Amino acid sequence: MRLDLLGGVADPDSEASRVIVARYQISLRAALAKHQIAWEDIREASLTLQFAAPVSLPCYPSWIGDPLVCTLALRNAFASAVEASAVTQCAVWRPGRFSRSIR
Asked: For a surface tag, which of 3, 37, 39, 46 has the fewest beta carbons within 10 Å of its beta carbon?
């Protein structure tokens, strides 16, 4: 899945992905403002999510979910670019999976 945080577009497109893009746009604007970077100076801002990624996470129990790689790429008007990735786990959503109370 790829989220274009500047254009507000997700691929693949769905109602849920459009909501996610809008939320991350708000977070990105706030982070840029905190570092005194103007939104207008950004030329590319994308978030790529690779579900069921071919990486191993030996210290986590498999019931938490499959490996997920999240990569943020930013490029400004002055040709400076940065990319950061994180690896975590993501469980596939299924109806009723998280509906039990833990109280």
From this structure: 39
Report the distance separating Cα 96 and Cα 28, nearest Å.
32
pTM attached to this predicted model: 0.77
Question: Residue holding tokens 């191993």?
Answer: 56
Q: What is the dihedral of CA 54, 60, 63, 69, to 10 degrees?
A: -40
- Encoded tokens for 68: 């997920």
For residue 6, CA distances in Å to 2, 19, 21, 41, 69 come to 12, 14, 9, 11, 21
Cα–Cα nearest to 75, from 41, 28, 26, 50: 41
Query: pLDDT of 46-82, one tens digit each?
Result: 999 998 888 877 666 666 778 889 999 999 999 899 9
Q: How many CB atoms lie within 10 A of CB 79?
A: 7
- Partnered with residue 91 across adjacent β-strands are none
